[in-house]
Amino acid sequence: MLVLAFLSVFSNSIICHFILKSNTKRTVTDCFVCNLTVADIAFFMSAPLVASVRVNENWALGRGVCRLLVYSMNVCGTVMLWTMSAMSVNPVT
């Protein structure tokens, strides 16, 4: 799971970097893809915390971090779903 999280963060960072550094005209689709990569990076940054809880069966980071983790995972998941929904109705230009 940690390897998957690392690969996800690395590949999404490269995609976002190329979109932002591109000299061509930015389209709505570029903004959607960049938004999707940022939400995906934020979502998978929590994977090591979830993996450690699954292995140790103990949460050692306190109640506030637990609440923040659950909140951020829910927000990032919702952002990814809404972004993909918006991409599906966006006309291809």
UniProtKB/TrEMBL annotation:
Cell location = Membrane
User: This protein's superkingdom?
Assistant: Eukaryota
Q: What is the lineage of its organism?
A: Eukaryota, Metazoa, Spiralia, Lophotrochozoa, Mollusca
Q: Which residues form the signal peptide?
A: none
Q: Which organism is it from?
A: Dreissena polymorpha (Zebra mussel)
The name on file for this protein is G-protein coupled receptors family 1 profile domain-containing protein
**Which PROSITE patterns did the record assign?**
G_PROTEIN_RECEP_F1_2 (PS50262)
Single GO MF descriptor: G protein-coupled receptor activity
Keywords for the protein's UniProt record, in alphabetical order = G-protein coupled receptor, Membrane, Receptor, Transducer, Transmembrane, Transmembrane helix
What the entry lists under InterPro entries is as follows:
GPCR_Rhodpsn, GPCR_Rhodpsn_7TM
Q: Which residues does the UniProt record annotate as the domain G-protein coupled receptors family 1 profile?
A: 11-93
Q: How does it sit in the membrane?
A: Multi-pass membrane protein
**One GO term of the cellular component aspect?**
plasma membrane
